[in-house]
Amino acid sequence: MVSGQVFHELEVKAAANKVWEIYGNAQELGKLVVNNLKGSIQKIEVVEGDGGVGTLIEFHFAPDGEFKFKSHKEKYTKVDNEKRVKEVEVIEGGYLELGFTLYRVRFEIIEKDEGCSIIKSTIEYDLKDDSVHNLPAVTLDPLAAIALAVQNQVTKN
């Protein structure tokens, strides 16, 4: 088993609560992701839930995009509005088809000072030894693009 963790951080000139208004809202974040990653993600559906723990989200990926699969489902396993932390795990399809036994994404909005915050996006994974050739599928590029899109939205408003 190969396990690992990678992360990306982006400093944003906006209050942490303002940034969390987007990351903490499943519908708002979903729209922003689809609008900013059109070449990779075709559609995001909330299958079940209201954005809290247990919410199921299905991603439909573009056929000619960077992902090697058509879709996957994620489940919100942690939503802490006070600490501004959200964790999701792939529970069906996608990375699991590539030999990952765990693929977890964590978003943390860290307050640096009153008008500045940090978006920290982390991927944690476990990958079967016989699937190690799929390790390059672990990429922070989409999470960095999402963070940049959120930054653009909160700083223009």
Automatic annotation (TrEMBL):
Residues 1-157 form the Bet v I/Major latex protein domain. It comes from Cannabis sativa (Hemp). PANTHER family: BET V I_MAJOR LATEX PROTEIN DOMAIN-CONTAINING PROTEIN, OS08G0374000 PROTEIN-RELATED. GO terms for cellular component: cytoplasm; nucleus. Pfam families: Bet_v_1. Belongs to the BetVI family. Gene3D superfamilies: 3.30.530.20. Keywords: Alkaloid metabolism. One of its GO terms (molecular function) is protein phosphatase inhibitor activity. This is Bet v I/Major latex protein domain-containing protein. GO terms for biological process: abscisic acid-activated signaling pathway; alkaloid metabolic process; defense response. InterPro entries: Bet_v_I/MLP, Plant_def-hormone_signal, START-like_dom_sf. It comes from the Eukaryota.
